[in-house]
């Protein structure tokens, strides 16, 4: 009896962890930097060692530093740029939990095909 309870609890915790990491956040469109509104702050959560065009982002805080520096993010609409889907999902979920409004997102090597 207690073995089943332990398996259920472990399975539930594992399911929650996998959901937060790999299930996409619904309702946030994929857009390129040129397609976003002018009143939207571009937040780049890619790591510092990734070579990127610094002109496309207003604010660069890597995902690993978001907890420490989230008070520096203005309370405006955000366009989030991430390196991959995992970083994007974790970053958006964290920002939403802190009360930020995510208007759109972009993944580095993803062309956002078929999405507006």
Q: Name the shape in a single word.
A: elongated
Give the termini distance in whole angstroms. Answer: 51 Å
Q: What is the name of the CATH topology?
A: Oxidized Rhodanese, domain 1
What composes the largest sheet?
Answer: 4 strands, parallel
β-strand amount: 15-25%
Uncertain runs are none
CATH top level is Alpha Beta
Helix content: 25-40%
Using only C-alpha atoms, the radius of gyration works out to 16 Å
Within CATH, the superfamily carries the name: Rhodanese-like domain
Could you report the average pLDDT, rounded to the nearest whole number?
87
Cross-sheet strand order for the largest sheet: 2-1-3-4
* Number of distinct helices: 3
Give a count of the beta strands, DSSP E runs of length 2 or more: 4
Q: What is the count of structural domains?
A: 1
Structural class determined from secondary elements: alpha/beta
Order of helices and strands: HEEHEHE
What's the CATH architecture?
3-Layer(aba) Sandwich
